[in-house]
Design goal:
The protein is mainly α. The protein contains six helices and four strands; from the N terminus they run αβααβαββαα. It has a two-stranded parallel sheet. About 30% of the residues are buried. It binds a DNA duplex through α2, α3 and β2.
DNA sequence: GTCTTGACGTTTA
DNA sequence: CTAAACGCCAAGA
């Protein structure tokens, strides 16, 4: 095989997508949780950047990924700013003022629940 | 090649 | 309590 050193960075994105896809319906997680699960808790920005590139992947439930405050910061990046909020409520999650209600209850920690 | 921005999070003032 | 700065890494201009 030909060395694929250039694709090394892509691996990080794949890991983020893999975790996001494993998020069960009705649950949500934060960028920091994913970053922490990947071992780069301080690089939470990269998770968000990976989400920005989620268009490379077929289906990524990015609406289940929010910031630490449970605020829908990335809603504006969807097809429509309301898509994220609608999808969340559709799964049984209440969203008020772009903020998830009982975020701690719906929170899904990959390191704790996925534990892969 | 350098500078700015960015779907974050934590710490300090 | 709120507001602002820093840190982290990557991509775009």
């Amino acid at each position: 095989m030909i060395s694929r050193l250039s694709d090394k960075s892509k691996d990080f994105f794949e890991q983020v997508y893999a975790v996001v896809k494993e998020i069960p319906p009705g649950r949500v997680t934060s960028y920091g949780a994913i970053a922490n699960y990947l071992g780069s808790k301080q690089s939470s920005r990269m998770v968000g950047w990976a989400m920005n590139a989620c268009h490379n992947q077929p289906e990524i439930p990015a609406h289940r990924v929010v910031n630490r405050n449970g605020l829908l910061t990335g809603k504006m990046h969807f097809v429509t700013p309301q898509t994220m909020e609608i999808l969340l409520e559709k799964e049984g999650i209440s969203v008020i003022s772009d903020q998830i209600v009982d975020f701690n209850v719906h929170f899904w920690d990959p390191e704790k629940e996925l534990k892969i």
